[in-house]
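Archive entry. Fields below.
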Amino acid sequence: MDFMQILQLIIPAAIFSAAPLIFTALGGVFSERSGVVNIGLEGLMLMGAFTGALFTILGEQWGMGAASPWFSLVVAIIIGMLFSLLHAVASISFRADQVVSGVALNFLAAGLAIFLVKKIFDAGQTPIIQERIYKTDVPFLSDIPFIGPLFFSSAYYTSYIAIALAFLVWWVLYKTPFGLRLRSVGEHPMAADTMGINVTKMRYVAVMLSGGFAGLGGAVYATSIAGNFSHATISGQGFMALAAMIFGKWHPLGAMGAALFFGLAQSLSITGQQIPGLKEIPEVYLLISPYVLTILALAGLVGRADAPKAIGQPYEKGKR
Amino acid sequence: MKLLKGKWASITVPLLSVALGLLVGGIIMLVSGYNPIVAYAALFNGIFSNTYVLGETVRQMTPLILSGLAVAFAFRTGLFNIGVEGQLLVGWLASVYVGLQFEGLSPIVHIPLAIIAAALAGAIWAFVPGFLKAKYQVHEVITTIMMNYVALHVVNAIIRTYLLAPGERTDQINASASLQSPFLESITDFSRLHYGFVVAIIGAIIMWFLLWKTTTGYELRSVGFNKYASEYAGINVQRNIVLSMVISGAFAGIAGAMEGLGTYGYMTVMADFTGVGFDGIAVALLGANGALGVVLASALFGGLKIGALNMQSVAQVPTQLVEIVIAMIIFFVASSYLIHWISNRVSKRGKI
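PREDICTED_STRUCTURE:
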């Protein structure tokens, strides 16, 4: 097996498994940049995956054909935003501990999604969806030598959307007044308030954006990777996205890079058996590498990762 | 509204939260076409109607108490240990490993040895986030979550490489290390009740004693209240942060030993987390981070989980309803500001 073949095996798989992580990690960037910890990404992703599978099946029944999964992605964004409102209300308005509220959100998502699956389908999981998001060769670009086969053949459009969104989020956060306000609310809410920014409103918007993105991430996972929804569909991807966001230093492009890297580690742990030289490395090292690297990054051993200043603190007007 | 102020608040807020949580559960059942009264009656019967379900409830409570104690202990020092799940897994593995070794040992030696091994394993696992917090100010929430996944994969790899028996699991531990009891099983109509609940109660007493009756406990709580003031008063804050995480991890490890030595007697390759560690967060919150509170909250959540089985078979309500109720209870406890706000409104109106 030559080098090119190895790359062709690894790189598309890495981009493929990274896409849901990128979406969700971008959501995390919005929320945490505004000063609200979002441990609930896992639960939001779970609701997204459930919605993705459910509405793809409904779309098929309503005769939407190949558009069904794309329809389900839109619904998942809306459901994600609505579901994240619970976290927003509890942690922003009622000043609940943000970590606790996120944990409760994860509990609720797990319970509610399976409860509804059992109610609707009378089974522990949804049926397998017929209309998945399939891989395609991008016209023209896939004909480019070297780059074409690696990045543009048998790829998923959702992956390109994820990468494009990362740049869009970067632009929004760093080049627009809205982004500046959002970040200022996360760094120094009192100063932002003095400048006439509505801290509560900004944080609500940020948390709902994170819900929408995480819902999209979950739905992309269900419609491109899993193919259905069961209790085991989302098991840790949300936390891995959280790790990617931190490893990417709360920066959209950093989060994307980290998610791609974690996707690489995941795909290596699956495809590694086919690659000479990697066979000798036990799978477990690849499986734990995203988490270990995140811990090392936080400890300052792989570049310092500093959280937004006001993260985790509810904002109380007039409090010193 | 006096009940919502002062010392009563620590009892009324949890009770009100439980009531509100059950109410939301009832509304969800109504909306989705179930009969909440029939369902809750079945749930209640599923906890108390016979000795078998009572035995199962106590068995379910046992690891919950210990994981709740683990979360609560760290909370008292101002630390949020979400890593109980991972510490529980390494504790479970350690207890099973010791249980598989040392043939012909007396149970009086073997059981404590296995439990201590579990406590040590959990403590070591929790030491990492504690050390990173104390030394580098790394937030423990993130590191403990990451350590959970490291634990899951490492434990599975160790079982697969060194301890694998047919059926993706380890062998059964030696009888001398087992907490299982034919006597307890026979009086509870052959439930899986084991002696672990004694260990859990001892754990609760130890936590209470350690926190409230020793200098170390005073220092730990003091760091939790205000670490700057504690530092100024000459308390070594860094040392106490590490110590708190290590003790919390030890409790979590013992929770794992309850599964390893009691309920199962072996460990399987885990596809996912047990959930006991995460439930511990709910237990600690509802129990207001006190030893007695944790035991009572475990009784409630353990009971709900066992009762849910009967609720499903009698009223056809999926067991997940109980998870929804537990999640809502956490929301309400965490949003106690809401409850206080409502009570203030009501009392003001009462005056006018």
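CURATOR_NOTE: Chain A has one domain: 9-126+135-298.
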